[in-house]
Amino acid sequence: xxxxxDTETPLPRRTARTGTLPPPRSLPPSLAGNTSLPYxxxxxxxxxxxxxxxGVHGCVLGGVDGLLITHNLQTDVDPNDLAALAATTYGLGRxxxxxxxxxxxxxxxxxxxxxxxxxYAVSPQALLAVVGEDSINVxxxxxxxxxxxxxxAGLLDQVTPVGHGSR
Length: 167
What we know:
globular, five-stranded antiparallel beta sheet, alpha+beta, disordered C terminus
């Protein structure tokens, strides 16, 4: 038995679209493990954000490739896992922006029963992920995090990619 009454009209099936997807994007070289990064300045920016917003447990700077660049997490969350989750969030947000014609990914926030994860675009290579408890002031976070992401982008822009000559 199929469970469907033979008199019911079957539901229409969705057909795949052709020729509407953008070409695959080539990723820039990873920043993970790049020894020329200004880690003290990056660490200062991450710490300032954590200190400005009560309830922030820490930040991760990760690549769009899902690899960890650096972090200042104050929890037992694995920073490598969080970098990968940030890249996954970025990938989903990027696809939403493309399909809806809304442009490039800028930010995404996930709220769970016990807290938040917000991911911000830093550069074509990097993402800022912020983990906070449920009581965090999300509006305040969204006010302070984008300028931090811009300053991080400026710091990363000065870096020579690993395996490439100077600019």
